[in-house]
Design goal:
Elements: H1 6-22, E1 27-32, E2 39-45, H2 55-68, E3 77-81, H3 85-96, E4 100-106, H4 111-119, E5 123-127, H5 133-144, E6 147-148, H6 151-158, H7 166-173, E7 184-187, H8 193-204, E8 210-216, H9 221-226, E9 259-263, H10 265-279, H11 285-303, E10 308-314, H12 328-333, H13 339-348, H14 353-358, H15 369-377
Parallel strand pairs: 2-10, 3-4, 3-6, 4-5, 7-8, 7-10, 8-9
Antiparallel strand pairs: 1-2
Bound molecules: pyridoxal-5'-phosphate (PLP).
Pyridoxal-5'-phosphate (PLP) is lined by residues 53, 55, 85, 155, 187-194, 242-243, 284, 286, 313, 315-316.
């Protein structure tokens, strides 16, 4: 690619910075757990970004990084390998700059996410073998003389880990809480960018918070944490999109993770469904993975008599998985049953009349008014 002219790069960076200035921070939801007194769960609700997930932050950073490295010009076709959420956000930023965007994704990616990419002006290239997304994206970028944004390589270095990131936002929003420094932060890893940002941030600020990786059982990451020689887990097939990978990605930084919890897909889906009932709106599968691991830690803390807080991430909306994780027929086809896991979770996450009435759980406000009214009328 010939070097883009500096005026175009400057104008493009300015457009992205203007978008950042117009955007609001996402909410931190507080959930008191009557069954676990003295412990509070917080959810960083990343669904309220304009493109619906935590990947809005990453896409903005990847675009700035590519622009500042002169990798994007006014005629570039942008290409990305993705399981969908990053591509939705990148399609949005490509349109902001008037550039063509192609998302290379596994054929199993939900049709809801594909529709969102198209709605944001992107194009879709599906591959049968999920492991082929990287080489295909690189080839398409080469063929068009364009730019492979390559989130799996660049996520950890494109995001500023010292300030103006998801960790910075979480810790400032916690400032007035009883336990303002969380004992644990729990997140999943796709690229590994989010966990790297959080891990570096807590070290830089000298915070005692520990980082737990919530990883699908069929992902390589928790195996790699147990034995660093394991770098691929090629036949693991998880239905949780966005997190868990068959290979250790370049952006994954294992040194920053204090603990790993492997979560079966059925438990993630159960947790996503129970949280969706609790909030009155659907939450995605990776949020379920995070929630399952978070509640496991909180139960351990309760058993040890500890008090404190734990923060995890509500990554994207379950509306993106209506035709899969929220469809009982689809679950049965996959041989997944989550009823047992749901029963365990409902004991911890059932809204009580007191929380519904006083609104002490911020999340209770997310429940439809009709449902809350019915709950109150029945004295539940
Ligand atoms: C939908 C989705 N994509 C990706 C990720 C992982 O982010 P990262 O790529 O920063 O590791 C998550 C969760 O953490 C997620 O829920």
């Amino acid at each position: 690619m010939t070097r883009p002219c500096r005026e175009w790069v400057n104008a493009s960076i300015r457009r992205i910075e203007m978008e950042r200035m117009r955007s609001a921070e996402t909410h931190l939801l507080r959930i008191d757990l009557p069954a676990l007194p003295g412990l509070t769960l917080y959810l960083k609700d990343e669904t309220t970004h304009l493109t619906g997930s935590l990947k809005h932050r990453l896409a903005r950073s990847l675009f700035l990084y590519a622009l500042c490295n002169d990798r994007i010009g006014p005629n570039s076709t942008l290409v990305e390998a993705s399981s969908g959420s990053t591509a939705v956000s990148e399609a949005y930023f490509a349109r902001l700059l008037g550039l063509r965007f192609v998302a290379v994704m596994p054929r199993t990616t939900t049709t809801e996410k594909q529709a969102e990419i198209v709605a944001n002006g992107g194009e879709i290239h599906l591959v049968d073998d999920p492991g082929a997304i990287y080489a295909t994206a690189r080839r398409l970028a080469d063929e068009t003389g364009g730019c492979y944004l390559d989130q799996f390589t660049f996520a950890e270095r494109a995001v500023d880990w010292r300030c103006d990131n998801i960790a910075d936002s979480i810790f400032s929003q916690m400032a007035a809480e009883e336990h303002r420094v969380p004992t644990w932060l729990v997140c999943g890893a796709g690229t590994g960018g989010t966990s790297a940002t959080i891990g570096r941030y807590v070290r830089h600020r000298g915070l005692p918070t520990r980082l737990c990786l919530a990883d699908p059982l069929e992902s390589v990451y928790h195996r790699h944490m147990a034995d660093p020689r394991i770098r691929i887990w090629p036949n693991g097939r998880s239905v949780i999109e966005g997190i868990g990978r068959p290979q250790v990605e370049a952006s994954f930084v294992p040194e920053l993770i204090d603990r790993t919890i492997a979560v079966p897909d059925a438990a993630s889906i159960a947790a996503a469904r129970v949280l969706s009932q609790f909030l009155g709106r659907r939450c995605g599968g990776s949020t379920g993975t995070n929630l399952w691991a978070s509640l496991a830690i909180l139960k351990e803390m309760a058993a040890a008599g500890e008090k404190g807080s734990l923060v995890t991430i509500l990554c994207d909306s379950g509306d993106r998985y209506r035709s899969t994780l929220f469809d009982d027929g689809w679950l049965a086809e996959q041989g997944l049953s989550c009823a047992g896991y749901m029963a365990q979770l409902e004991q911890l996450l059932a809204p009580t009349p007191a929380t519904a009435r006083t609104g002490r759980n911020d999340a209770a406000y997310g429940r439809p008014v009709s449902e809350l009214a019915a709950t109150l009328a029945q004295g539940r």
